[in-house]
């Protein structure tokens, strides 16, 4: 016989067990590894204190990956949010083919990252790629997108925007459809112009969705990996080396598992602090109904 | 302040007609109520007046100006919505001010007007609150406040009380009535609640199936319903309908109902016979308060009936009043509903036919008791069973 006071814990037990096994334990174990020298192939593990963190602090490449990742996040996130919102508003105002537009914009979300990356590698081809061919039509000599330091990160940013923007469009459309139409009728009687309606009503009323999109896009941008691995392998000259790719490279290419987990821990702590800051600062401007 | 006219207004969505050939003249400062069941077209008509729906055919005039093509903001109207439609992220003050700011009214004037109208509606304490921090009644008052600060020519209200509980609805109904008196502006009010229509309207427009059924004062609508729909829709409990055949009995005319016959008052019978066809079929409508119950040779009248009787008849006593224009129907009490102030009794007669009577709650009848239901034929209404229209007598 289960007593009333024990029942909640019993019901929580399966979920908490899964959470503990797959989230808490891996984090604590990787934290432990980050203070060790652990060779994956031999299994030898030696406690080295904060040596891995010292090494990271002195690593020119790690600093470069932090810079690249921040640059990637700070460009991909705002552009995909603004474009997502803009297209969602446009789609919701069209009278015909709404479903078609939604489908078209959702395609990037369901296409596998590998397929999308390979398609983009063709588009980015310096000689035969569609992008450079179109640019040449207006007399612009396109760059060697994936092989030049100046353009490689931009190429990944464009792909990142393409990937996340469709998902954002769908989220914003869902948000717009939830808005009370009577409020807009009241606004029409109050004489609010379309621009005022957008700035005084739609944007504030969509702020819970925008906040969600903001957090999710930021976090997913920090975790960019597959496109880097498929298109540039972090090159040229570490111009597109990102934090998660650095972790993967150190762990599975150079077998510096301790250093890799230290970098992963830094990434985890950084994203956690950032998320908390976003919740604290940005959420103040969110209008929950 | 302005008069308003709708001339042959029709609204279609594709092939679906939502409002058919609606014509109405509303006087300046008049309180007109559109009432009818869901889907009858009353809200669509209101929205066409507001400019929120395009008019398919016909014209709408506010004052002297035809406003068909004018944007809602240019019609000098204000609207109170069913779900209040307050801007949820703005305070009460900002909700009231936004429309005025948009009209470029200067800040001092906005503040003066908001304070003035807030005083009428007791909103001063709520200025800094957001809609989610308000009760239903407070939200409704803010919605009304937002409408009145604009000093519109016409107020449009779309079922503004339907989201409130019964007690608050009664209070807000009284507040709206007194607001109309204070503001002396034209009000158009949409509701499906016939009590709101009867208590608020100077005139009532009863709608059904996309068309106007009757336009009139509350008394006209109640006392002289022009068709079966109006007769059945207005009044609670609803009017009783008895379908039967007019027959000649010696020198009088009677209404034959299955195996019982109700003698009509002489002037009724003659005129009705002239209007009905050879079938003689009619529907007799009688309101629950115009029925009385009689048991063991003593009749007990409904409270309303006692009130409506003229003094001379009351002085004659109840028993004698059930002769003359009263006709009796044998029936059985199937259900008694104690409404507190009165008793609603459901009677069964003939083959599964029902009557509802409103009576004094001190009556000593019991469920299952055989009674004789006396019908005040002076108050009876007669309708053509095919066309549903009122027969005059």
Protein topology:
The complex is a heterodimer of chains A (289) and B (393).
Chain A: H1 7-34, E1 36-38, E2 45-47, H2 51-58, H3 60-93, H4 98-110, H5 113-123, H6 130-137, H7 149-178, H8 181-190, H9 194-205, H10 207-222, H11 226-231, H12 243-253, H13 257-282
Antiparallel strand pairs in A: 1-2
Helix pairs in contact in A: 1-13, 2-13, 3-7, 3-10, 4-7, 7-10, 10-13, 12-13
Chain B: E1 4-13, E2 16-26, E3 31-35, H1 42-50, E4 57-62, E5 65-66, E6 77-80, H2 92-102, H3 107-121, H4 136-148, E7 154-158, H5 166-183, E8 186-191, H6 194-200, E9 203-208, E10 211-216, H7 218-223, H8 228-233, E11 240-249, E12 252-257, E13 260-263, H9 266-275, E14 281-286, E15 291-295, E16 298-301, H10 303-308, H11 311-316, H12 318-321, E17 326-338, E18 342-349, E19 353-360, E20 370-376, E21 381-383, E22 390-391
Helix pairs in contact in B: 2-3, 2-4, 3-4
Judging by the overall fold, what is the CATH architecture of the domain at 61-114 and 158-285 in chain A? Orthogonal Bundle
By CATH, the architecture of the largest domain in chain B is named: 3-Layer(aba) Sandwich
The CATH C-level class name of the largest domain in chain B = Alpha Beta
| Major beta-sheet overview of chain B | 6 strands, mixed
Query: Which sequence of strands runs across the widest sheet of chain A?
Result: 1-2
Q: Give the SSE order of chain A as H and E letters.
A: HEEHHHHHHHHHHHH
Q: And the CATH topology of the largest domain in chain B?
A: Rossmann fold
Strand proportion of chain A? under 5%
Ends distance of chain A: 43 Å
Structural class of chain B: alpha+beta
Tally of helical segments of chain B: 12
The rounded Rg of chain B comes to: 25 Å
By CATH, the topology of the domain at 61-114 and 158-285 in chain A is MetI-like fold
Over the alpha carbons, how many angstroms does the gyration radius of chain A reach? 23 Å
Count of individual beta strands of chain B: 22
Return the average pLDDT of chain B rounded to an integer: 88
Strands of the widest sheet of chain B, in order across it, are 6-7-8-3-9-10
Main sheet of chain A, how many strands, which sense, barrel? 2 strands, antiparallel
Structural class of chain A: mainly alpha
Main location (chain A): membrane
InterPro entries (chain A): ABC_transporter_permease, MetI-like, MetI-like_sf
Protein name (chain A): Carbohydrate ABC transporter membrane protein 1, CUT1 family
GO cellular component, one term (chain A): plasma membrane
């Amino acid at each position: 016989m289960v007593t009333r006071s024990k029942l909640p814990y019993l019901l929580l037990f399966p979920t908490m067990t899964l959470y503990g096994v797959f989230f808490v334990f891996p984090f604590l174990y990787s934290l432990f590894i980050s203070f060790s020298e652990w060779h994956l192939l031999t299994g030898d593990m030696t406690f080295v204190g904060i040596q891995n963190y010292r090494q990271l602090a002195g690593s020119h490449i790690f600093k470069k990956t932090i810079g690249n990742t921040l640059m990637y996040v700070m460009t991909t996130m705002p552009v995909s949010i603004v474009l997502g919102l803009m297209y969602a508003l446009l789609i919701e105002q069209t009278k015909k083919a709404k479903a078609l537009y939604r489908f078209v914009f959702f395609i990037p979300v369901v296409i596998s990252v590998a397929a999308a990356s390979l398609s983009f590698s063709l588009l980015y081809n310096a000689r035969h790629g569609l992008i450079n061919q179109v640019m040449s039509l207006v007399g612009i000599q396109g760059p060697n997108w994936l092989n030049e330091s100046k353009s490689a990160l931009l190429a990944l940013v464009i792909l990142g925007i393409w990937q996340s923007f469709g998902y954002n469009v769908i989220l914003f459309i869902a948000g717009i459809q939830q808005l009370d139409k009577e409020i807009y009728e009241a606004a029409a009687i109050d004489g609010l112009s379309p621009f005022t309606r957008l700035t005084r009503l739609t944007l504030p009323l969509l702020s819970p969705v925008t906040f969600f999109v903001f957090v999710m896009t930021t976090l997913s941008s920090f975790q960019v990996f597959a496109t880097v691995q498929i298109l540039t392998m972090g090159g040229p000259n570490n111009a597109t080396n990102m934090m998660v790719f650095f972790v993967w490279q150190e762990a599975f290419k150079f077998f510096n598992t301790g250093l890799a987990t230290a970098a992963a821990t830094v990434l985890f702590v950084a994203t956690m602090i950032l998320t908390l800051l976003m919740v604290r600062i940005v959420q103040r401007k969110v209008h929950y109904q | 302040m302005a008069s308003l006219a709708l001339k042959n207004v029709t609204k279609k969505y594709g092939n679906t007609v939502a409002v058919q050939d609606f014509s109405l003249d509303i006087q300046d400062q008049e309180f007109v109520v559109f009432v009818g069941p869901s889907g009858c077209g009353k809200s669509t008509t209101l929205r066409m007046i507001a400019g929120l729906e395009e008019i398919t055919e016909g014209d709408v005039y506010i004052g002297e100006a035809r406003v068909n093509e004018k944007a809602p903001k240019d019609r000098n109207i204000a609207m109170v919505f069913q779900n209040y439609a307050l801007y949820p992220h703005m305070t009460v003050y900002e909700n009231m001010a936004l429309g005025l700011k948009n009209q470029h009214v200067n800040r001092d004037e906005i503040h003066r007007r908001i304070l003035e109208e807030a005083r009428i509606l007791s909103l001063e304490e709520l200025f800094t609150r957001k809609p989610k921090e308000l009760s239903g009644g407070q939200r409704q008052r803010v919605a009304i406040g937002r409408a009145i600060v604009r000093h519109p020519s016409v107020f449009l209200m779309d079922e503004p009380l339907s989201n409130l509980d019964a007690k608050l609805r009664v209070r807000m109904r009284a507040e709206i009535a007194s607001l109309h008196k204070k503001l002396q502006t034209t009000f158009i009010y949409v509701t499906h609640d016939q009590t709101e229509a009867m208590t608020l309207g100077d005139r009532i427009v009863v709608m059904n199936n996309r068309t106007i059924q009757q336009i009139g004062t509350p008394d006209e609508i109640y006392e002289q319903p022009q068709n079966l729909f109006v007769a059945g829709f207005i009044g609670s409990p609803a009017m009783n309908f008895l379908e039967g055949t007019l027959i000649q009995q010696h020198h009088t005319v009677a209404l034959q109902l299955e195996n019982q016959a109700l003698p009509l008052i002489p002037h009724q019978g003659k005129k009705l016979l002239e209007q009905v066809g050879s079938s003689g079929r009619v529907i007799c409508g009688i309101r629950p308060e115009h029925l009385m119950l009689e048991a063991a040779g003593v009749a007990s009248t409904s409270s309303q009936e006692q009130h409506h009787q003229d003094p001379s008849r009351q002085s004659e006593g109840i028993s004698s009043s059930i002769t003359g224009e009263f006709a009796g129907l044998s029936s059985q009490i199937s259900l008694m509903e104690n409404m507190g102030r009165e008793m609603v009794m459901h009677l069964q007669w003939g083959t599964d036919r029902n009557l509802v009577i409103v009576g004094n709650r001190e009556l000593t009848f019991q469920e299952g008791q055989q009674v004789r239901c006396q019908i005040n034929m002076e108050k009876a209404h007669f309708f053509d069973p095919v066309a549903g229209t009122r027969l005059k007598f």
